[in-house]
Automatic annotation (TrEMBL):
Identification of the protein by name: Lactoylglutathione lyase
VOC domain span: 2-118
Keyword annotations: Lyase
Presence of the UniProt keyword NAD in the record: no
SUPFAM superfamilies from the UniProt entry: Glyoxalase/Bleomycin resistance protein/Dihydroxybiphenyl dioxygenase
Source organism superkingdom: Bacteria
InterPro entries given in the database record: Fosfomycin_Res_Enzymes, Glyas_Bleomycin-R_OHBP_Dase, Glyas_Fos-R_dOase_dom, VOC_core
EC code(s) of this entry: 4.4.1.5
PANTHER family: GLYOXALASE_BLEOMYCIN RESISTANCE PROTEIN_DIOXYGENASE, LYASE, PUTATIVE-RELATED-RELATED
One annotated GO molecular function: lactoylglutathione lyase activity
Keyword Lyase: yes
Length: 120
């Protein structure tokens, strides 16, 4: 068995695709209309992808107890990039041990995104 994707219901599919493409550098691998006003897009070029679903139901509820983690090469460079894109950083960067540091941002739907640098 392997993990294929994680699904996120979104308010605006195009806005969410723009965020995940521009900020996290994920590529759209599939995008289609599923009927009844529902649009679906898959992003990511690895084994595991993100599925974004937009439907007529604009009532989206994303809990605070979940986040998606993405590795970055340099947290310092990522902070500068986020500032240029006007993406708010939640709190301060965290360095729980000498080998890792991370920070959180939120996507346009309120999903927490953890950006992690593995320190070599």
């Amino acid at each position: 068995m392997k993990f294929l994707w994680s699904t996120l219901n979104v308010k605006n599919l195009d806005e969410s695709i723009e965020f995940y493409s521009e900020i996290l550098n994920l590529k759209v691998t599939r995008k289609f209309e599923a009927g009844n006003g529902t649009s679906i897009a898959f992003l990511g070029d690895g084994e595991t992808q993100i599925e974004l679903i937009s439907s007529n139901n604009s009532d989206i509820s994303i809990g605070e107890d979940i986040s998606w983690g993405f590795e970055v090469d340099s947290l310092e460079d990522t902070i500068e990039f986020l500032k240029k894109k006007n993406i708010a950083i939640i709190g301060e960067p965290i360095k729980p041990n000498p080998h890792i540091q991370f920070l959180y941002i939120k996507d346009p739907n309120g999903m927490k995104i953890q950006l992690v640098e593995n320190i070599k």
